[in-house]
Every structure is written in structure tokens, then in C-alpha cells.
Amino acid sequence: MSILKNYIDGKWQPSSNKKTFTNINPAVNDDVIGEFAASSPEDVDSAVAAARTAFETWSRMPAPARGEILRRIGDVLTERKDELAFEMTREMGKPHFETRGDVQEAIDTAYYAGSETRRLFGHTVPSELPNKFNMSIRRPIGVVGVITAWNFPVAVPTWKMFPAIACGNTVVFKPSEDAPHSGALLVQAFIDAGLPEGVVNLVQGAGEVGQALVSHPDINAVSFTGSTETGGKIAEICGAEHKRCSLEMGGKNPMIVLADANLDLVVEGILWGAFGTTGQRCTATSRLIVHKDVQDDLLDRLKKATSGLRLGYGNEKDVDVGPVINQKAVDKILGYIEIGIKEGATLAMGGKRITGGKMDNGFFIEPTIFTGVRRNMRIAREEIFGPVLSVISISSYEEAVSIANDVQFGLSSSIYTNDVSTAFKAMHDIEAGITYVNGPTIGAEAHMPFGGVKKTGNGHREGGWEVFNFYTETKTVYVDYSGSLQKAQIDNT
Ligand code: NAD
Prior knowledge:
Layout: E1 6-8, E2 11-13, E3 20-24, E4 32-37, H1 41-58, H2 63-79, H3 81-92, H4 96-116, E5 123-125, E6 132-140, E7 143-147, H5 155-166, E8 170-174, H6 180-192, E9 200-202, H7 207-215, E10 221-225, H8 228-241, E11 244-248, E12 253-257, H9 263-275, E13 285-291, H10 292-307, H11 327-343, E14 346-349, E15 368-371, H12 378-381, E16 388-394, H13 397-404, E17 409-410, E18 414-416, H14 420-429, E19 436-437, E20 453-454, H15 467-470, E21 472-480
Parallel strand pairs: 7-8, 7-10, 8-9, 10-11, 12-13, 12-18, 13-16, 15-16, 18-19
Antiparallel strand pairs: 1-2, 3-4, 5-6, 6-21, 14-15, 17-20
Helix pairs in contact: 2-4, 2-6, 3-4, 3-6, 4-5, 9-10
């Protein structure tokens, strides 16, 4: 199935200007995924208008009834997990077992957000006056613009859309231009689960469509996942227009390995953290900060394990690592490898595009390890978003934390140690939204808050109990049943 159109007000429809863009399989470049609607500003207008109309009824539906629809969406996604994962792998490249996990995260989020509709708590607190009742309730915000990256093409959009609609908002969703098919298949699952028309609308296209959405006067809030650069542009518009805006952006995530760590566990963690999703995760382990006493032993084991990774098309059997997303990503990653070499780091492994045979038809880059990296090098500071690990040697916990914190990002982090006191210290000392102890930097659970500090985020969180604060306004209600005019804050003494 290949759905190529926008979905607006309950109908699949082409772009009003009939323009399209092509998307291809990054592992098998001559496999064309499809031609997708390149939306015009008029399409964005129609989608926002449909969401605005739907808001009137959707926001008035009892929240648990909205939750029931979310539960059905979870059921449909469960039935389709395998076929959806196949299409996601075809479109964005990570292996099938990873895209199945991506869908599973969406399923968990559907059930979690659905069940939270019975718990959208406000507060009741005592009044300072007699015969008066004080409470706060949650109100939906309105129409939310959802703009996402391609690397978690189903999970991340649902982290935003499910809590948004659970709270009574309606949505205009613009998936990445590198994952339009996954976005469309996700919306098809919503339709088949019985989501009413206009509650979620889909507009396809690139950055200019996202920008039109953010700037639209009838969009009340924007939830964005993507690069720090794009997030900055969105924040400027939202700031000028006083729109609520949640930004989840880039990372340069450190894994600290102390001398007492279990190195077998560390090697497994690095393979998954640094090379899973071909290093194209916001939470990818991109800096390995390792104690000098165990560095050589760890590197020997790591190189051996890395050389065993099988690269290829992720819908084929036994593939561990897929391609990178497109030619632009190939150029950027190879450019950083060049920079690392020029900066004087040692290329310990990998470093090249893989060619020959079937590999010529895809965007494959070798898992790459740089050693001898120093904290001031660009490969230690900038997000590469590819299978490149920078290894930095340290001689103390304090030095490790100082290097871990010496970047502009702060999404995820990890420390491997068997010393419980050091682990607890690290939870406080590392500047990041997430810290793992004895696990790699990735692996979010749907019912836990997710997000970053510094230039990774802007203070909001996806997931868990926190996300419901973003998608609701607090309304304060006073009920005075004294039968007389009571004035608060009047000093009667
Ligand atoms: P990107 O910023 O290029 O694009 C992200 C989305 O924004 C796309 O849908 C794109 O079309 C849209 N967009 C581009 N320009 C826009 C504009 N001016 N106005 C509005 N929308 C615009 O990012 P990408 O290359 O797709 O994704 C990779 C980045 O995403 C990395 O930096 C990665 O760390 C980050 N990411 C972060 C998280 C997180 O939760 N923190 C998760 C996944 C990816």
C-alpha cells in the first residue's frame, strides 16, 4: 500500500498545487517508496481549519471516551506491527527488529495516554475564606502543530499526538519529508480505529510546510522534534507570536566508563548505543569517556565486537545495522570523519562509505571509532548523527563529568560503574535530561518523562506524567457559597 496524499478533514487529497516529492529506500535506492504531496500554504490553511472545527466537538467529548479511541488505535497498531515495521524499515533504513520496537513504543503510548484520560487531575486546595471552594482544572489548548524528524517515524509523532488528543486538542501533523509514508500509514491506523474526522490532519512536505504551520495564526501550540538549528527558528516564530512550543533537539550523549565497570556489559551497551539506528538517534552514544586503566582492554573487545556487525537492508535476515538516511547524511558524516582526522584524532576503525555489489545501491557507512579524541575537537562537541564514536580518555570521575558536561547539548547520558555512591553522585552531576546507570544512553519508556537540557530542549518533556502539562492549560476555579461578597487579600486586621 502506498498512500501519497494529504489527509485533511477526513479525506485523502492531493496538494492543491498538485506538486509532489519523491522518497526512496535508503538501503535499495532504486526502490521508490512513492511520490508524496508537496503541500501548499493553502493545504496548511485547510488542515488547520479542519482541526479548528473538529476541536469544538472533540474537546467536549468526555476524556475517557477519547481514551477509548486511543485504546482502539493501540489495538490496530498491535495488529499491524509487522507490516508497518516493514514499511518503516523500507523507508528510513533501521532494521526490522528496531522498527518493530518503534511501533511497540507507539502502542505503549496509546494505552498509556488512553488510560491517563481517566486521571487528568486538577487540584483542590483549601480556601483562605470560609464557605469557598478552590480548585484547578485542565483545559485543552486548541490546535497543535506536530513536526517531527524521520528517525523514529512512528514512536515520536505518537509521543506528541496521543497525549495531545487525550487532552482534547486536535492536531495538524507534518512528518519528515524523509518518512512521509510511515506518517501516512500511522494516520491510516487512526482512521481505521475510528478517530473522528478532523481530529488529526496530515500535511506532507519539507521545511517550508513546517514553517507555514508554525506561523499559522490558528495554531495554538507547536511540538517539534528535530535539529537544534530548526528548533531555534521555530522558537523565534513562537516567541514572537506567544505560542506555546515544545522543542526536542540534538544531542552529543556521553557514556562514562569507570575502571570498576563490567566491560562485557559496556561493549554490548556501546554496540546498541553508538551503532543502533546507525548512530542516527538523538540519544546515540557519541562520546565514550573511558578510564585510562581499562581503555585498551575495552577498545580491543569493542573493535572485535564492532567488526562482527552485519550491515545491509534491514528487512533482510540477520542485519544489525542499516544505511544512513540519504546522500546529504553520507556527505555530512564523511565530512566529520575528515575533520576528525585533520584534528589529529586516531581513526581506530571504519571511516569509509561501503561500496561494491548491493552496497552501491544504498547509503552505507562503516561503524567508525576515533580514539585519542580531546574535548575541544569538533568530533567531541558537534552532533554528527551517524555511526561515529569518539573515545576520550580520563583518569578520574571528576574529569569524566567535566568532559561530559562540556558541550552545548544535554539529552541523554550514561555511566558504567559498580560503585553505588559514584552512580548516585553522577545522577546529580551530569547535565542531561536522562542518566542511565549501567545501560547505554538510549531506550525511553512511554510512561517516563523524556527530554533534554541546554540546547537540546526548552524545558518541556515528552512522555510520562509531564507531557500532559504541555497539552493543557490550567484553569483556576473559585466557588463562593457563602452568600456574601468575600474579598480575598484584604487585610482585615
Ligand atoms: P530537521 O530539523 O532537519 O527536520 C525536522 C523536521 O522539521 C522535519 O519535519 C522538517 O521538514 C521540519 N523543518 C525543517 N525546517 C523547518 C522550519 N524552518 N520550520 C518548521 N519545520 C521545519 O531534523 P532531521 O534531520 O529530520 O532530524 C535529525 C535531528 O533531529 C537531529 O538533530 C536529532 O538529534 C534530532 N532528534 C531529536 C530527538 C529528540 O527527542 N530530542 C528525536 C529524534 C531526532
